[in-house]
Amino acid sequence: MLESRELGVGIGWRPEIDITVERLPGVDFVEVVAENLNPDHLPESVVLLRERGLPVLPHAVSLSVGGAEPVDRKRVEHLARLADVLDAPLASDHVCFVRAGGLDSGHLMPVPRTREALDVLVANVRTVQEILNVPFALENIAALLEWPDAELTEAQFLGELTERTGCLLLVDVANMYANARNLNHDPLKLLDDLPLERVAYVHVAGGEEHDGVYHDTHTHPVLPEVLDLLAELVKRTKPPGVLLERDGDYPTDTDLAAELRAIRERI
Question: Which branch of life, at top level (predicted)?
C-alpha cells in the first residue's frame, strides 16, 4: 500500500465549481487537471486550499505514455513543476495514448495489451519518473474498443507495469463499470487480480447510457453499481483515498455533498 499519508475523500477541483469545492463539507483532498494550470500563476482557490492544508494532486491527460512515440518532455516538465509548486504527494496520468503520427485523438485511447506495447509503455513511464520528483500513478481507462490479439489480461498488463517501473495505480471503478457494460469485462475478477497494494487512490464518477453504449461522462450522478464496485474494492484493500470526478452539468452543492457522503459510507 502507498506509504504516504492517508488522503481521505476528495473531489476534482474545476474553475466552474471553485467556490463550491472551498465550502463543501467532507473534502479532504482535491485533484486538478494538470494541463489547465500554470505553475507560476495558480488560481486563488487552489492556493487557498493548499493554505488550508489540503493535498492538491495534479492529474495529467496528455502525456500519452502508451504511445509509440517518446513522451514530450515539455509536457512532463510542466507536470513536474506543477507537482513541486503544489507540494503534491504524487502525480498521475492514464494508461493510454492520445497522439500518433502527429495527430491528436481527442480521446484517451486504449493500449494494445501485447508484450511489445508493454515494453514501450514501460520505457515512457520510466522517462516520466526520471523527470518527476514525486511518485507517478497511472489510471485504468474506459474504452469503447479493444485491440485484437491481446497477449495479457488487463490485470497482468497493469501488474507487470507496476513491477517493472514501480509506478502506482490510480484505480477508476467507474471505468471498470463502463468496461463491464461495453466490453463484457468482469470487474470483480479484475479487482481480484490487480496488485491492489499499489493503489495510490481511487476515482469514482457518473455516466449514462446512449443507444446501448455506456458513456463515462463525468456529468451525471454516480450510479449505485459504481459505488458497489467501490465497496468491493474496499473489501480487498483500504485505499488511501477516493475522489469524485465531475466535469460538467454541475449539480447543487447539496447534491455534491450527498455524493461525497455516499462515497465515505463505503470506505
Answer: Bacteria
